[in-house]
Design goal:
alpha+beta, Structural Genomics Hypothetical 15.5 Kd Protein In mrcA-pckA Intergenic Region, Chain A, Alpha-Beta Plaits, 3 domains, nine-stranded mixed sheet, four-stranded antiparallel sheet, 17 strands
């Protein structure tokens, strides 16, 4: 009889373990923030589970009480996934921290549901950025090794030539590494198009500076299969066809981030 009781207790523990969710995934699934942002909040001690400060990697069960900055977060609040394509103006910052930066993307859009940006587009740049409440898609798109394309139109401060195009295409030494080979095409005396599959900090600006140029304007016009087609400062939802195609492109992508 004792063995039988121990067997069922062990089985219950295994079943509970299967139902438990990592705290960063939990927060992304309920649409509070991305996993990356969740990890930052956890490290800052702003996340609690049953009244105790959470640690990175902690797991949450259905019966647990989770709070972020003192606010109760519940699984029952899980929402339908939202995917927005937004044309960010110059001067708007891609952050969810509304206290740190008054000109943040969340306050600018004023979307009725909690969403967060996928990646960043620096304050001086404009163009396409995704916003969503789907934490899994964030990590798949952001992970550098997944090689997802982002296309930009850039204007620099002086005329460019074939040497500049070739140097940009073959990779430039920045931040202690050499950028990946990429597609670059001259569009005018000072304008060019560039397609990147990585996202180093201020990568295009740093590449141009390394070659003796300064970026005057930078606009992102495409991320993977989604093209920029809304006026500046406005957004639209992804179409069903775009979501299907995007999911197809992400099918073999890793969910975890670098």
């Amino acid at each position: 009889m004792k063995r039988l009781i121990n067997y069922f207790l062990s089985a219950d523990k295994k079943e509970t373990s299967k139902m438990a969710t990592r705290i960063n995934k939990y927060l992304s699934e309920v649409g509070y923030c991305s996993r990356r942002e969740a990890d930052r909040l956890i490290l800052e001690g702003k996340v609690t589970i049953n009244g105790k400060i959470s640690e990175i990697g902690a797991k949450v069960e259905e019966s647990d009480q989770v709070e972020v900055k003192g606010q109760r977060i519940e699984k029952s609040k899980r929402q339908k996934n939202t995917y927005l394509a937004f044309n960010k103006p110059v001067g708007i910052v891609c952050t969810t921290d509304r206290k740190v930066e008054p000109n943040n993307v969340i306050d600018f859009i004023k979307y009725p549901k909690r969403i967060f940006p996928i990646g960043r587009l620096d304050k001086l740049s404009e163009g396409l950025i995704f916003l969503t409440n789907d934490g899994d898609i964030v990590n798949k798109i952001l992970r550098a090794r997944n090689n997802h394309e982002k296309e930009y139109i850039v204007k620099v401060n002086r005329p460019i030539n074939s040497d500049f195009i070739q140097s940009m295409s073959n990779g430039v030494e920045i931040l202690g590494t050499r950028t990946r080979n990429c597609f670059v095409k001259q569009l005018g005396s000072r304008n060019f198009k560039i397609i990147l599959t990585q996202g180093l900090n201020r990568q295009i600006r740093r590449m141009c500076e390394a070659l003796g140029y300064r970026v005057l304007s930078l606009k992102r016009v495409r991320i993977m299969n989604i093209k920029l087609d809304v006026p500046i400062g406005e957004y639209r939802e992804f179409s069903k066809e775009e979501i299907l195609e995007l999911n197809g492109l992400l099918e073999n992508s890793s969910k975890t981030y670098d």
